[in-house]
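Long-time lurker. I teach an intro course on protein structure, and each term I like to show students one example going from raw sequence to a predicted 3D structure in token notation. This year I'd like something fresh instead of my usual example. Would anyone be willing to generate the tokens for the chain below so I can use it in lecture? Attribution to the forum is fine with me.
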Amino acid sequence: MKRFLFYLTLFILLITPAIMASETDELLKQAVELIKIDKLDWALELVREVIQKDPHNPKSYHCAGMIYFKKKNYPLSIKEYKIAISFKPDYSVAWYNLGLSYEKSAKYKEACEAFTKARDLYKEQNNKKDYGDAIKKLADLQEMGYVAPSALEVKETEMVLIEGGEFFMGSNRSGSGTDEKPGHKVYLSSYRIDKYEVTNSQYCKFLNDKGKEKNDGLVWIHINDRSGECKIKKIRKTYIAVPGYENHPVTFVTWYGATAYAKWMNKRLPTEAEWEKAARGTDGRIFPWGNNWDSGRCANKENSTDRKTKPAGSYPYGASPYGVMDMAGNVLEWCSDWYGYYPVMEEPVKNPLGPFSGVTKILRGGSWDDDYYYCRITFRGNYSPTNYDNDIGFRCAKSEK
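-- Reply from a regular --
Happy to contribute to a lecture. Here you go:
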């Protein structure tokens, strides 16, 4: 009798997990069918029931991730997919769906990492179809510029030639600012413009050569601003960039500081017209990359959760038609012109320099703290030339002989 009870107990212990697995699998199948017909709350109740019965089942968390994804609650879908992966690290479809959730959350670096993991797992599992899907996802992300390159060293001498000719300046579009109108033709002689915004390390060379931060009472850069956000510091008598920010665009620089640096480099600030042509080319586009807003192509308010600049050139697929980088977002850029409305003149206007005098200077390009409206090529910012901030920088230009 004792032997019979022993074997009976052993049989029950062996068969119970199989019965539970069968029950949970059936519940999860029902949940998946409910997801297909958008009965998401019902599906979620079934998934929760499964988790109560078997809290270590990765399929249940993956199913929960699918539900939250369809509900467009991407932070929760990310959380559930991560739990599923914690129980099953080689859960390839969970990695792929995690990538989709990151993509929807505009976390493109994380999305790339998740899709890469899914791709590698699909390859190991000889899953050719899904492997191809992961490859396509990665290619799309890279083609659209969502994957930022590693930091690069920016050279002061690297400039882009803009050939002489006409282009369309300003905007006649509905919703454009009054000062962006009228759109008009402009002729510019050939010139060169910096491919990248001037960086902290570059500006330090200028400060160390000059040995000062101002001239004749005009401050060039406010390194001791109360916010403490300037990424250039003075250690004893030497100006250095804060480690990690060497290749970020210099900020807290005034128009006078930008002009002084440009002169030191045997360059100058670009005119407003030169800046706009370098950013848009000759087809009248709205953003450097085209006419449709894409927050993944520049540092802007939608993706700058850390409220910081990004290294110069971090968005190669946000480049202008001429290959000039960061013409939208990252930092606003000083131009040489005084601010004023566009004069009505016979077209094309040739090599315009802006008003002869004024109160404020032109800033172009939008910044990491701006949304799409201010990142439009034709948006015209303006500040006092003594103004400075954590999202104001510049680049230089040079007339072509």
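Some talking points for your students: Residues 4-20 have pLDDT under 50 and may be disordered. The longest strand covers residues 332-338.
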